[in-house]
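Incident log entry.

Two folding requests arrived from the same account within the same minute. Monitoring flagged them as a possible duplicate submission, but the sequences differ. Recording both here for audit purposes.

Request one:
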Amino acid sequence: MVPPALRRAGTATARPTIPRSAPSSGQPTRKARELRTRGAGSVEIKKRGADINPDDLRKSLKLGGGDEQLTVIATRVDGRHRAIICRRLAKNL
């Protein structure tokens, strides 16, 4: 079930692709590994309730070579820092 906050307005069936959620507690190598296995060449970093600097995180990931553009959402889930790796939905949905 996708939380209402993650659903796209006006569509009951639109669901983001969320392949994996990983702890975000200062482990850029784990996040980088997850992103590389998904072929990420670039990432968009969003944050809510997380005390990170998106530019510093992007630099620490040291990505390159992949074709996929993924999004990393740094947030807190059940009081714990988490990094959610997902893909942006198409605008025409």
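Request two (distinct sequence, not a duplicate):
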Amino acid sequence: MNLFRSEEHVTSWLSYDSDSHEAIMSIEDWCYVMGADLFARRLQPDYLDHIAPYYEDWFNRLGELGRTGDFWRIEEETPSDAAGGADQVAGRE
């Protein structure tokens, strides 16, 4: 995460990607989104048992802030995608 003085500073940053424009939010909004149980309860032993409602809460918080575009969509990996990613991490292609 990068913090900038203003939205103008973000868009003039050399690494700015216009596809991620929807992720530009105030620090207050980021604190609200990151305060969701999806992040706050990661170290709980039953975390994965509750992942669906945690994601629902997270998406609801994003929706309250008007953040509902494609940037926030989570694409599911197929087992072959996951295996390919593991091969790439291990240096195999």
